[in-house]
Amino acid sequence: MLWRRNRFALSAALALVLTASGGAGTASASTGTTAVAAAPAAGGFGAPGPYATAVEVGAVTTLYYPRDIADSDRRHPVIVWGNGTGGVPLVYRDLLLHWAGQGFVVAAANTPMSNLGISMRASIDMLTGRNADPGSVFHDRVDLEHIGASGHSQGGAAAIVVGSDPRVDTVLPIQPGPLADIDAVRGPALLLAGQRDSIVLPALVKAFYNAADHIPALYGEVRGADHFTVVGDPGPFAAPTTAWFRAHLMGDRAAHAQFFGPGCGICADTATWSDVRRNSRALSVPAATP
């Protein structure tokens, strides 16, 4: 199978990126940009969000989150993340911090073998406990009613696996490996492929899309992207992934318009996308009301 033949190449490449990035500390904070509006204009979802960010590295999960979450006046939705084969959250740090800067609590499973989604489910359990703990900075600040799942490669397959969990509202698999059953996913799905991906071929991602006839599903093929474009600087993956989660977990109407209704933003953006498809259920989702 193509996936099995190439997983060792994937692991080696991710290890090289990890070595170049340096080691992770036990905890750190990074300065975020605060001049960006909380709800960016359509097409602006790749810009830094309004929140300064912090990182907490645990034994099972690494958390990326708004640094001042304890003083926040709102609850923050959750994104659970799965790594590609041999990878760790540090490999995807830029993307995960980007989401945290947009106001999400990102729970990234530390495991380099995430396909079963066990650690991703455990991340939800952990945040449930932290949210209920009066001594935690997350106390009553985590929106457990709005949870999304994402991941890259093997982790993309894990996001599909975790999509069967009733706590997960939507999935966004990035170049997912084939070891998952999308028939069990309960909520809307945005399936992302890379036009030049030779490890997880676009045809494999399209197979998931074609099978997802029971949910609103979209297929997006990023023009010129290979399997490692999302690693490090996420580039063209930052804006659409942010918009998808803002639409489904925050109720952002401008983000919703990027995917649904006759004015579908990504459908017209041929500079970013080499192929965009929406199934009949996605086409029936109305445009957001003003």
Percent helix: 25-40%
Give the oligomer, counting copies of the same chain as homo and different chains as hetero.
single chain
SSE arrangement, N to C: HEEEEHEHEHEEHEHHHEH
The fraction of residues in strands falls at 15-25%
Morphology call: globular
Largest sheet: 10 strands, mixed
Spatial strand sequence of the major β-sheet: 1-2-3-5-4-6-7-8-9-10
Terminus-to-terminus distance:
48 Å
Rg, Cα atoms, Å:
17 Å
Mean pLDDT over the full residue set: 88
**What's the tally of helices?**
9
Q: Give the low-pLDDT segments.
A: 1-37, 39-43
Q: How many β strands by DSSP?
A: 10
Structural class: alpha/beta
SSE blueprint:
Layout (H helix, E strand, L loop, with lengths): L1 H20 L5 E4 L22 E5 L3 E6 L9 E7 L10 H9 L3 E5 L8 H15 L9 E11 L1 H9 L7 E5 L14 E6 L7 H10 L5 E6 L15 H12 L3 H4 L8 H4 L4 E6 L1 H4 L7
Parallel strand pairs: 4-5, 4-6, 6-7, 7-8, 8-9
Antiparallel strand pairs: 1-2, 2-3, 3-5, 9-10
From the structure above, extract its key features.
290 residues, disordered N terminus, alpha/beta, ten-stranded mixed sheet
Question: How does this model look, in words?
Answer:
- The chain has 290 residues and is an alpha/beta fold.
- The protein has helices at residues 2-21, 93-101, 118-132, 154-162, 202-211, 238-249, 253-256, 265-268, 280-283; strands at residues 27-30, 53-57, 61-66, 76-82, 105-109, 142-152, 170-174, 189-194, 217-222, 273-278.
- A ten-stranded mixed sheet has the order 1-2-3-5-4-6-7-8-9-10, sandwiched between helices.
- The longest helix has 20 residues, at 2-21.
- It is globular and about 45 Å long.
- The protein starts with a helix and ends in a 7-residue tail after the last helix.
- Residues 1-37 and 39-43 have low confidence and may be disordered.
